[in-house]
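Hypothesis: this fold can be encoded by more than one sequence.
Test: take the structure tokens below, design a sequence, compare later.
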């Protein structure tokens, strides 16, 4: 089963995404692409598409509630990195719940994470950062 965020995208189409200008690749190599941001105030930028309604981040490739991916996931702003899906780490997320409800999606529950093993890993799918799970250590060969 894939990570629930890969079939959601509600947060990216509900909240303004504001972040410090130093996170932009205009200031920090590998940062948020400046072409996808616009000034919000003297200290902050926001992702294009999130400043005013209708909210939809320009980096979002999604049909909300069906499929979702961030086209700049490794370069996404810190505020995006800080939003957890509800129950992903054992706690509800008010932001996740509000965004999903605004798009008519049911809130996530602890049951939505049962596909993970006890260590929080999914043996068949990459994690939310696109990394495949580590391979198990090799089994020693008996002499």
């Amino acid at each position: 089963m894939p990570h629930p965020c890969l079939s959601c995208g509600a947060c990216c189409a509900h909240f303004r995404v504001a972040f410090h200008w130093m996170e932009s690749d205009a200031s920090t190599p590998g940062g948020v692409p400046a072409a996808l941001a616009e000034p919000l105030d003297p200290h902050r930028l926001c992702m294009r598409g999130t400043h005013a309604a209708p909210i939809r981040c320009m980096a979002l490739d999604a049909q909300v509630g069906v499929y979702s991916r961030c086209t700049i996931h490794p370069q996404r702003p810190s505020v995006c990195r800080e939003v957890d899906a509800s129950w992903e780490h054992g706690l509800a997320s008010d932001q996740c719940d509000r965004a999903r409800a605004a798009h008519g999606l049911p809130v996530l529950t602890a049951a939505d994470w049962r596909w993970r093993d006890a260590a929080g890993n999914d043996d068949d799918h990459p994690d939310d950062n696109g990394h495949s799970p580590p391979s198990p250590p090799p089994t020693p060969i008996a002499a």
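The mean pLDDT is 87. The chain is about 10% helix and 15% strand.
Hypothesis status: open.
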